[in-house]
Amino acid sequence: MATPTPPHLTGIERAILAGDIETAATGLAAALQADPTDFEARYWLASALQMAGDEQGAAQALQVARNVHALTLAQNLGVDLQRCATDGAYAEQIAAAFYAQHFVALASAIYGIAEQAGSALTPQARLGHALALQHQGRVSEAITVFRAVLQGQPSPAAQQFLLYPHLLLSDPLAYADEARAWAARHAASPAGPAITPPPLAGRKLRIGYVAPSFTGTQVRQFIAPVLGAHDPDRVEVVLYPAQAEPEASWPAWIDINPIGHLDDAAAADLIRQDRIDVLADCWGHTAGSRLPVFARRPAPVQVAWINFIQTTGLDQMDYILHADADEPVDLAGQFSEAIWPIGPVFNVFRPAYERLPPGDTPALASGVVTYGSFNHPCKLSDRTIALWGRTLQATPGTQLFLKYRYYVDPVLQRTTEARLAAWGVAPDRVLFEGESRGEEYLAAFNRIDLALDTTPAPGSTTTLEALANGVPVLTLAGDPMTLQGFYARSMALAVGLPELVARSPEQFVERAVHLTADPVALNTLRARVRPGFDTGPLRDEAGYARRIEAAFARMLERARMARSG
């Protein structure tokens, strides 16, 4: 539900949405002179300044509006703000409670009071502050706090938290540099003795997969199709999760050796004793990673796969699996690994829920085209907001449906409205919804006519779920094509819908206008999405497993030949 504009600001809203910045400025000056704590006026000031091209002024106005709004809400909920500034433990308790309820903007405001006052916060609280900022898309601020956390807690896990926000930046080398810095600091362990694998003739290929869990996370949707399709006559598979009990549902022929209780050296010894030929990391730099185990080289071939399409930064990682590229992709300086093409898609994907029957595009019944995004708010970069804002501006009468658990936060909602208002999008055109599961979650896809992807960090699981449920997703690949654009494009091509791939922001807007101009034509497009997903390479589990097995065998033969002279 849109945030209602207070009566004294409705004229200012109309002026801003009409592009009349001069009239809006006069009204805003009067409103703020009357009440400097009027956060609604400051939100509209941020929109006006952004529309006028004053990016720095807009950012400052938005920061003040967001902070005053959050602290006002917190105070109305009974929070003692003065105590937050003097009692770090109290501030941490309050902020953690807000964070647990997904009120990330409120949490960051409380953490910010304590930080600015110099209150003693635990490393865990400071990490929570950085994450609360990141979850709002305040990426640069999050990076600053993460770096401060590292000064007092220079652990591998703490430094890994710093890596993810770099994926959200426009500079792909920024992430690669941070990944290499992490590896230089935490993955410089002495490798074990070089392993020369015996020939494969007359034996099965032994594959090891490493992740904290293969069942309790979204990785299951990517790994389960492969594990279920592996050929037990050709390969032997060992899973290395943190604990064994949650992994009990896999086929009996798959071995499970938990390593959560082992340090890196002991885990590497266990893998070496298991005589693994190819060890694949399925987790990347996400929390819970065991990449330092790979630094000890417990297997003759080591591969990065699934959870990250970017580099691990480890020189000890031999390969990373990517889709085949039908045209050049700008990857210069972005990888420590060699890229191994694995076919038309980066991965296969199995929907988490039994899907609802296919439905028509909702605009046929409602008469209103609804764009949507279920992506994490951290991906709503300024480039994304500009792209979506221009799209909504070019298609009057449309609306935008944003769904994610953090959108229950009223401050995040209002901030997002203000950012879009700078592009002439009225707040009542933006709809928000929090988390849902099962049938309720699936039903939400039937409220979207066209999903809009984010940039520079596109959707992954969210895009695949949309496609699986018959929702077309318009994405931006870039020209020249970026790595993340390549990943997003591969999904659209996999369902046979190249018209969902734009190569420039201008083309993105043009395609959105064209695709939504005729609901009947849009419904015809929608009817192609789910069959394209179901019959395409994203669901070819057996074919993908055969390609994985063949690729791993070739990698092993290369390693054997190289080490045997």
* Major β-sheet profile: 7 strands, parallel
Report strand order across the widest sheet.
3-2-1-4-5-6-7
Instruction: Indicate the low-confidence ranges by residue numbers.
Output: none
- Give the overall shape, derived from the CA principal axes: globular
The overall pLDDT average reads 95
What's the structural domain tally?
3
- Assembly type of the chains comes to single chain
Per the CATH scheme, the topology name of the largest domain is Rossmann fold
CATH evolutionary superfamily of the largest domain: Glycogen Phosphorylase B
Helix content: 40-55%
Please report the total strand number as a whole number: 13
In CATH's first tier, which class of the largest domain applies?
Alpha Beta
CATH architecture of the largest domain: 3-Layer(aba) Sandwich
Q: What distance lies between the first and last C-alpha atoms, to the nearest angstrom?
A: 68 Å
- Rounded Rg: 25 Å
The tally of helices reads 23
- Strand content bin: 5-15%
Explain how this protein is built:
- The mean pLDDT is 95.
- The chain has three domains: 7-168, Serine Threonine Protein Phosphatase 5, Tetratricopeptide repeat; 205-348 and 543-563, Rossmann fold; 363-539, Rossmann fold.
- The chain contains 23 helices and 13 strands.
- The strands form two sheets. The protein has a seven-stranded parallel sheet with strand order 3-2-1-4-5-6-7, with helices on one face. The chain has a six-stranded parallel sheet with strand order 10-9-8-11-12-13, sandwiched between helices.
- The N and C termini lie far apart (68 Å).
- With 565 residues, the chain is α/β, with parallel strands linked by helices.
